[in-house]
Structures are given as C-alpha cells and as structure tokens.
Amino acid sequence: EDQVTQSPEALRLQEGESSSLNCSYTVSGLRGLFWYRQDPGKGPEFLFTLYSAGEEKEKERLKATLTKKESFLHITAPKPEDSATYLCAVRPNTGFQKLVFGTGTRLLVSP
Amino acid sequence: DAGVIQSPRHEVTEMGQEVTLRCKPISGHDYLFWYRQTMMRGLELLIYFNNNVPIDDSGMPEDRFSAKMPNASFSTLKIQPSEPRDSAVYFCASTPRLTSDNEQFFGPGTRLTVL
Predict the structure, then answer these.
(1) pLDDT tens-digit series, residues B56-103
(2) Is B34 on the interface with A (CB under 8 A)?
(3) Best of A87, A99, A106 to mutate (most B CBs within 10 Å, chain B)
(4) Which residues touch B21 (CB under 8 Å, ≥6 apart)?
(5) Which uninterrupted H or E stretch holds B33?
(6) Spans of chain A, pLDDT less than 50
C-alpha cells in the first residue's frame, strides 16, 4: 500500500532558526513527489515536484531534496510568513493522476 | 484569472440531511479531483474525473457519497444521508491536460459540520 509519513507533526522555530521537515514514503514506483504549503482556511498551494533521487529544488528560503526513501524540506532562516502546514504527496506509477498525501507538518515561526 | 471556485464555504447540517457541495474548475483544465481533509487522516482523494468522466472512485467511502460532472465547468459532491463522521473539509482541485505530471490547483474548500 502506498504510504506517506511526515515528521514532526508540529515544529516551532524562532525567526532565523533553520530546520528540516521530513517526508518518508513507500510507493509502488514513484512518478513524482510533491510538496505543498497550506495556510489556515485555504487549499494547498503547490511548491515543488521532485522526480528522481538526488534531485533538489529551491524557492526563496525553501529547498527540497529527494532520496529513494524520503524527502526533506529545508527551511533556511525562516520568517514568520513561512508559518503554515507543509504537505508531502507522492504520485505512484499505478494511478495516472492520483496523489497520496501525508498528514503534514505544522510550522510556526515566531518573531 | 479565477482559481478553483467552491461553494458553499461553510455548511452546517443535521444528521440525515442531504448535502451538496459544488465546484467550478479552472477553465481549460480537464482533470477534476475531490478530496476530504481531516486531522486524523489528512488529505484523501475521493474521486477524480477526466473530461467529465469519472476515472477512479475507489476513495469514495460508501454509497452515501456520489459525485457528478455534468459539464466541463461544474461538479457536485453529494452526501445523502449525512452522518457526523462526514464532518471534514472538502476540497476540489483541477489540473490541465497537456502535461500529465502537472501540479493540482486547489480551491478554498468547504468546511462541513454534521450535527
């Protein structure tokens, strides 16, 4: 069964304190791993897609990396506006457009 | 450019009542998805359509749930009869046809509370 586990469930950082969020997955063939950001009361917003082990992508203070078993979302010198829930999802080979999501990491960055 | 539109944004109903959630995808997007989000289970795919045709409904929890897409710009998710355990946030998402690995664009969601 395709499964995504995210850790920690919640993370509290001081502004400027860098950290990483983890997404571990088991999937029947990976077609893509996705990171989304979700603000309270809103739908998820796309951040990155990673396709193969060793791939990295960056956007402002965020950097996503991928291995064969997990992905990390590194947050460098975070700001309060980075506070959100970060969701990881995988697209298995079986299921053309299907995404399997983790339960997310709630990040709070204090000034 | 309008994103995915969902209505209502909030719905409070009593157990046993019929609930209808509505979605308008982004114009030109051929794929439409319905998700349910709860604290315990996260975001779960219920059903998705391609060109108005249901492709995978294996995530629909039971016969009380049904979804339709009568045309390219409108879809409904209906729960009849509703139960308290259906309380969740329901999201609609869409994605275009051309590149199969495109990200999905989510609407703002409908928060459903069944008393």
Answers:
(1) 899 998 899 999 999 999 999 999 999 999 999 999 999 986 555 678
(2) no
(3) A99
(4) B6, B7, B8, B11, B76, B77, B78, B90, B92, B110, B112
(5) strand B29-38
(6) none
